[in-house]
């Protein structure tokens, strides 16, 4: 180990990776007085670094580097001489940020800089809120800050919108009432509190940050004493890269550190340098046949994932719809934890400062969830049991058999591009070309291939150019939206991971400066959020276009992130499968052994063992006795000699016949009750890549994958029409009385037929109300929402009627609770000009539904319920005069939207709904053709005809609104909302699923009628 340590490249790599360890190892080499215990601890620490250096190919300092290859008809992958490799060094982003703050505190520099408002700033009532950042020894941290609004503050912010110097800002404040000193103190306070930020702020999409800083200082303050020191530091860092790998001594790095300290800059030796390694290839081609293998595996994983996929934003979307309905709300207001929803929903306390928890990944306690086994879960359990019974260590997938459980999807919801990360196992390039290779698929991700590539674009110009080209194709595939890069400087020392070149035309800056110009910068304050067509829609107010955010770098954004950043990063994955990997399903969690899984040449999952620490490492065994014990365990568990131990993405190879390697593993797991190891693949005969001396190297490939059948968002998203002149809200006591009746699902029907319907009829007869309507809802408790419109300006007098009618049900416990609430009209959904007409239509439909409910009895009534709902929708479409082709298209659209909501692809959805329709077709045909027994259906048809007569005048009024251009909601969207409300009134439970089935049945029947009509026309043509 000491011989390895003395190699110059190893020393430089260790210094860059861990300065503290390097300094200690220097003592390890020379200090004869070091105790055996301390020496053993250092042996293990050093061994861990050596194992990482030898095994894991993910780029990290000088431990592992990267190269860019290309597809070809044959494989030729060889490393060039080490002398041709390139080092790419830069100063740490946190150091840069701290320098910027240090400079900004100096008065002569502060006066010459441009300032803008903090880009997280937003107004709530008489306050401004924003995220303040601070620098300390621990690094950068973020804090929610609040400042009171004042006309002076507003004046300063307005002046600074597009950048202003300190003298410019002073000029806006100084007056007879405010002295220059007072104005200066006020603006200094805004700058110190980070409400105003300078032009020197680091840019995560600008690799030349330090050079830009030096250039700005040279231009603005050429005589500043510290400028030369910074220039020298930049020069010396560049000089490091001119030396061959291993040619830099640790003293070359410490000289830069000492130079900065002498000039007055605070810098930590362990957090000053960021280094990447670009390896040169003498052969850089890979046989393109490999990508076909990977594509097949990715397609299979996508179909498996569809069976278990849960949209991550669904809870937030439902909460948004419940509170804001069809409204479009400023994004920052929605994400505010006090006036909005916050994000994620479980972090309602995220605005509170809890320093005790700041560095911990501690999730709040959640309620236990009910395990629901899918078809895939059951199939995986069955196969696992079969393999264990056979003593097999590998499951070779029979795709034909698997497809009986996992059908092929026509268009899986994959993003425009994604990446596949894999390791290739083969003895040589010739073996690959002959088909003698295996691919270890580590996983795929998205929503863009750039998520993994972006991090290294600042290192290699070729990679940067290819990544930009890939993203241009993504934008071309989605021309109706703006794909915008999320630009964020995170807390702690994660800014180095975020650094990349500018990749997209538009950027959304969050606590970082954008590299785009103002025309292509989308501040958070420009973004508005709504729910349309069952998805969250982000819109730029300035561009009036939908914005789809993208983060083109690998960052664990969910940890310790501010809500805006976390939300935008989650939103980029909306309704898409973006992380695909093998899953054994939910029924096999905690199994002691998982066999290897292979599809053709692709290994989807390595063989994995879950081991009890106490059994594997008995406390009384060490040395040779322990190795002998481990041989017995390996035989018993079919455990190979070489395994890989991993925590998160940190993997170390372990040789279970090597005492030092075993000691490393023992030290890593000693505080755990159990641990997991995987089989190791990089045997000497599987090292595809070699150098000129024939030495083999481990590998890890990132393959960009292009999805030619990308699922696109709905086109033409624009700003909802404002509803300024029509009242939106009606509080209790106004002309609308809104009550919620909490009760059981079936009790709701009883209340409608025995209380609400009769009471409404009485109030109409007495002239106390002129309309009313109801809907069913859960929040999550089931209840009825009933609204009465009084003929007088105040509806409070109606409460006494309700009290009398409802008291018996409440006293008996059948009615759990009664709640008054504010009625908020959904003006964006129904349109200001057609809102009152919609309420009248709700009224006539509610009356008809209650009357029809009175006809339903017992279990037979439950069967009739869906038939009445379907008939009601068809009759509604007839009342509006829709011809059959229009009815068919509308139902096809609604069926598609609901199928997407329920994650039903074209294959699985079509098969089950076709079967369902064939079974119910006679009933559906009788309903649509109205060929129903008069004794059973006569009264039903009469009630629906009465509804037709009652709302005909309103229908004509709405049609005139559309003809005159007064209506603002597209007609078919508006009509779809009324259809949805009709079906809501019929569905006691699982309303979205029942609505889906109604649309599917009507779509198929209308399509069948059109086909029959077309066939009739063809057969009637004379020959």
Automatic annotation (TrEMBL):
- InterPro entries, A to Z: Lant_deHydtase_N, Thiopep_bacteriocin_synth_dom
Q: What is the lineage of its organism?
A: Bacteria, Pseudomonadati, Bacteroidota, Cytophagia, Cytophagales
Protein name (record): Lantibiotic dehydratase
Q: Which residues form the Thiopeptide-type bacteriocin biosynthesis domain?
A: 736-1006
List, for all copies, the residue spans of the domain called Lantibiotic dehydratase N-terminal. Answer: 7-665
Which Pfam family, any one of them, does this sequence belong to? Lant_dehydr_N
């Amino acid at each position: 180990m000491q011989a390895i340590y003395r190699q110059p490249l190893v020393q430089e790599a260790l210094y860059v990776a861990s300065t503290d360890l390097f300094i200690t190892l220097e003592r390890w080499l020379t200090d004869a007085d070091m105790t055996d215990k301390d020496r053993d601890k250092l042996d293990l620490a050093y061994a861990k670094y050596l194992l990482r250096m030898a095994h894991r190919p993910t780029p990290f300092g000088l431990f592992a580097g990267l190269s860019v290859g290309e597809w070809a008809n044959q494989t030729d992958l060889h490393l060039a001489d080490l002398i041709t490799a390139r080092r790419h060094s830069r100063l740490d982003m946190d150091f840069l940020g701290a320098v910027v703050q240090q400079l900004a505190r100096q008065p002569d520099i502060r006066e010459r800089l441009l300032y803008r408002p903090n880009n997280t700033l937003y107004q709530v009532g008489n306050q401004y809120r924003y995220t303040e950042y601070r620098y300390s020894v621990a690094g950068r941290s973020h804090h929610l800050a609040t400042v009171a609004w004042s006309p002076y503050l507003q004046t300063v912010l307005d002046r600074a919108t597009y950048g202003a110097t300190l003298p410019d800002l002073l000029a806006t404040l100084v007056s007879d009432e405010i002295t220059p000193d007072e104005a200066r103190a006020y603006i200094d306070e805004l700058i110190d509190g980070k409400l105003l930020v300078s032009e020197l702020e680091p840019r995560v999409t600008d690799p030349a940050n330090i050079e830009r800083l030096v250039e700005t200082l040279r231009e603005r303050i050429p005589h500043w004493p510290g400028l030369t020191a910074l220039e020298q530091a930049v020069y010396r860092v560049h000089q490091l890269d001119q030396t061959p790998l291993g040619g830099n001594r640790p003293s070359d790095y410490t000289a830069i550190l000492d130079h900065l300290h002498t000039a007055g800059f605070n810098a930590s030796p362990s957090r000053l340098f960021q280094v990447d390694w670009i390896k040169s290839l003498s052969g850089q081609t890979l046989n393109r046949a490999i990508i076909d293998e990977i594509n097949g595996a990715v397609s299979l994983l996508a179909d498996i994932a569809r069976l278990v996929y849960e949209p991550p934003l669904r809870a937030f979307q439902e909460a948004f719809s419940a509170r804001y309905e069809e409204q479009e709300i400023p994004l920052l207001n929605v994400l505010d934890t006090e006036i909005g929803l916050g994000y994620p929903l479980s972090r309602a306390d995220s605005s509170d400062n809890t320093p005790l928890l700041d560095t911990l990944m501690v999730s709040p306690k959640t309620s236990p969830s009910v395990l629901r086994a899918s078809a895939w879960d059951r199939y995986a359990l069955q196969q696992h049991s079969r393999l264990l019974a056979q003593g097999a260590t590998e499951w070779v997938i029979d795709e034909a058999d698997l497809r009986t459980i996992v059908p092929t999807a026509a268009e899986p919801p994959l993003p425009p591009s994604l990446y596949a990360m894999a390791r290739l196992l083969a003895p040589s390039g010739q073996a690959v070309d002959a088909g003698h290779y295996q691919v270890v698929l580590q996983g795929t991700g998205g929503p863009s291939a750039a998520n993994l590539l972006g991090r290294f674009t600042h290192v290699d110009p070729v990679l940067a150019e290819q990544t930009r080209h890939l993203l241009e194709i993504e934008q071309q595939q989605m021309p109706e939206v703006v794909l915008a890069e999320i630009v964020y400087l995170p807390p702690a020392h994660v800014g180095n991971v975020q650094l990349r070149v500018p990749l997209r035309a538009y950027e959304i800056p969050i606590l970082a400066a954008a590299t785009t110009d103002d025309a292509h910068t989308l501040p958070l304050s420009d973004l508005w959020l709504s729910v349309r067509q069952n998805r969250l829609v982000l819109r730029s107010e300035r561009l009036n276009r939908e914005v789809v955010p993208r983060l083109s770098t690998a960052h664990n954004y969910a940890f310790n992130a501010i809500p805006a950043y976390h939300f935008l990063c989650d939103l980029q994955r909306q309704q898409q499968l973006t992380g695909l990997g093998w899953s054994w399903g939910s029924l096999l969690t905690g199994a002691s052994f998982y066999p290897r899984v292979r599809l053709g040449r692709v290994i989807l999952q390595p063989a994995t063992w879950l081991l009890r620490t106490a059994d594997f490492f008995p406390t009384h065994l060490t040395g040779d006795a322990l190795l002998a014990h481990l041989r017995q365990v390996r035989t018993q568990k079919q455990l190979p000699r070489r395994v890989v131990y991993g925590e998160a993405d940190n993997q170390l190879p372990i040789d279970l016949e090597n005492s030092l390697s075993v000691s490393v593993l023992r030290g890593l797991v000693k505080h755990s009750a159990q641990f997991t190891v995987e089989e190791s693949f990089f045997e000497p005969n599987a090292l595809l890549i070699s150098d000129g001396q024939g030495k083999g190297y481990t590998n890890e490939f990132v393959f960009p994958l292009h999805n030619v059948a990308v699922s696109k968002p709905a086109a033409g998203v624009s700003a909802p029409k404002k509803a300024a002149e029509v009242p939106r809200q009606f509080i209790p006591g106004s002309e609308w009385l809104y009550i919620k009746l909490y009760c059981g699902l079936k009790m709701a029907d009883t209340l409608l037929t025995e209380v609400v319907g009769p009471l409404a009829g009485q109030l109409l007869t007495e002239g106390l109300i002129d309309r009313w309507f109801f809907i069913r809802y859960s929040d999550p408790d089931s209840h009825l929402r009933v609204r009465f419109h009084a003929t007088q300006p105040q509806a409070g007098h109606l409460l006494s009627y309700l009290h009398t009618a409802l008291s018996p049900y409440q006293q008996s416990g059948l009615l759990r609770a009664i709640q008054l609430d504010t009625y908020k009209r959904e003006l964006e959904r129904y349109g200001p000009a057609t809102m009152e007409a919609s309420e009248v239509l709700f009224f006539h439909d509610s009356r008809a539904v209650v009357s029809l409910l009175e006809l339903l009895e017992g279990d037979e009534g439950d069967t009739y319920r869906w038939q009445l709902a379907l008939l009601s929708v068809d009759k509604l479409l007839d009342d509006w005069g829709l011809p059959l082709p229009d009815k068919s298209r509308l139902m096809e659209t609604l069926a598609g939207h609901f199928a997407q909501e329920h994650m039903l692809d074209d294959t699985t959805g079509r098969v089950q709904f076709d079967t369902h329709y064939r079974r119910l077709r006679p009933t559906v045909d009788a309903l649509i053709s109205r060929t129903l027994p008069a004794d059973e259906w006569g009264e039903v048809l009469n009630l629906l005809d009465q509804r037709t007569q009652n709302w005909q005048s309103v229908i004509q009024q709405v049609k005139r609104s559309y003809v005159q251009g007064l209506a603002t909601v597209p007609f078919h969207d508006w009509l779809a909302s009324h259809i949805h409300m009709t079906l809501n009134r019929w569905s006691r439970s699982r309303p979205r699923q029942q609505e889906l089935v109604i649309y599917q049945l009507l779509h198929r029947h209308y399509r069948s009628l059109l086909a029959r009509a077309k066939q009739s026309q063809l057969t009637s043509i004379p020959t």
